[in-house]
Amino acid sequence: MFDMGFGELLLIAVVGLLVIGPERLPGTIRTISLWLGRFRRSFNEIRSEIEREVGADEIRRQLHNEQVMASLKESEKNLQSALESTTKTTNDALQQIGNSIMPPEANATDKEDELGGTEITEPAPTDHSEKLNDEQRRD
User: Fold this and answer.
1) 66 pLDDT exceeds 60?
2) Residue 130: its pLDDT value, please?
3) What is the spatial distance between Cα 83 and Cα 75, in angstroms, rounded to a whole number?
4) Is 20 exposed, middle or buried (0-12, 13-18, 19+ CB in 10 A)?
5) Mean pLDDT of the region 20-41
6) Cβ-based neighbours of 17, under 8 Å, separated by 6 or more
7) Residue 48 and residue 25: Cα distance in Å, rounded?
8) H or E element that contains 135
9) Rounded to 5 degrees, what angle do the CA atoms 125, 128, 130 make?
C-alpha cells in the first residue's frame, strides 16, 4: 500500500523500540495495526459507495433514456396514425373530385356513339428516304 520494503520496516521497528521502549512497543504496534485496518475498511467502504453511486447514476441515465425513447416511439405512432388518416381523407377527396369531373361509364359510351364509333388512329409512318431519292432522280 505504501510501497515499503523489509529494510524500511526494520528501520521503523528499531526507531520505535528506542523511542517507545520494549514494554509499550507491542501495544503500540497493535494500536497502529487497528488504525490501519479501520483506515482500509473506511477507504474500501467509500470506494464501494462511490461505485454504487456511479452505477446508480448510470442506471438513472439509462432509465431516463428509455423513457425518452418510449415517448418518442409513442409520438411516432401518433404521427403515423395522423398521417394515415390524413392520407385516407385526401385520397377520398381526390376520388370524389375525380368522380365529379369524369363522367360515369354510361356517358362514356354515349360519347363514342356521338363520334360515330370511330377510333382516332395515328397516320401510318412514311418513308421519307424514298421521297428524297425520287426528288434526287428528277434533278
Assistant:
1) yes
2) 58
3) 12
4) middle
5) 92
6) 25
7) 34
8) helix 128-138
9) 115
